[in-house]
Write a structure and sequence with these properties.
The chain is α+β, with helices and mostly antiparallel strands. It has eight helices and seven strands, in the order αααααβββββαβαβα. It has two domains: 162 residues, endopeptidase fold (from Nostoc punctiforme), CATH 3.90.1720; 56 residues, no CATH class. The longest helix is centred in the last third of the chain and has 51 residues. It is rod-shaped, with a radius of gyration of 44 Å.
Length: 272
Amino acid sequence: MTAIEKLISIAKNEVGYLEKKSNSNLDSKTANAGSNNYTKYWRDIKPSYQGQPWCAAFVTWCMVQAFGQEKAAKLLRHYPYVYCPTMASLFTLNANPKVGDIVIFKNGGEFTHTGIVISVSGDYFQTIEGNTSGGSSIVANGGGVCQKGYYNSNLPGTKFCTPDYSIIESEDELMSKEYDELKGSIDDIQGENDRQNGVIDEVGKDIEALKNKVNIAIYNYIDDNMPDWAKPTVQKLVNKGYLKGDEEGKLELTEDLMRVLVINDRAGIYGE
């Protein structure tokens, strides 16, 4: 969805909203309907202006909903947009509309009303406006949000302001690029973590294998587990009291140690 499409979608969702007779039920489209210019748009944009004509407040509100206040201020070149002549002084005033333009209607020699252009077909264009009413005439102080259509050739003096929506597109592209770069960095870190975890797993397996190897090489008793070539020597040393084992009688002999004992025995070190 482009920036303009997002703005138009938000504006269309507001069609049917009716201004209120008091500062109550402002979020309801139809409840507490009246003619005193109380709206959620003023509440959210500039509460101190509540009760004043609100066509420009509606445009500002849609911009803020679509892009946030900071970007809305860039698009409108000031903030908040509440007065049509101010908009006219800040923008190049185009004679023909484009989708996404802010239209400022001229009536009686002054810019008095505003809205968002949502479609253009030759001389005919459609808008969504706040503080207006249905029909094809310009209504600068109506009672709600309406979608309307006009022939531009019938509106002498009406002008169109074109916000620089590339501000939104370029910032969105930058954010997307930064997100992709950040995601790539996170993926790299995750990959390195996976590699390190793999190394740790392999080391753990090696340690476990070493433990098993050490356990197999220890002989605690003169039994079937002990090699036959070592039994006579070990038995001799036990009988002579040279080997006593621990408090449980475990000899804790390794194969290498038994080989030394057998060599010594064959050399006559332990006697007959």
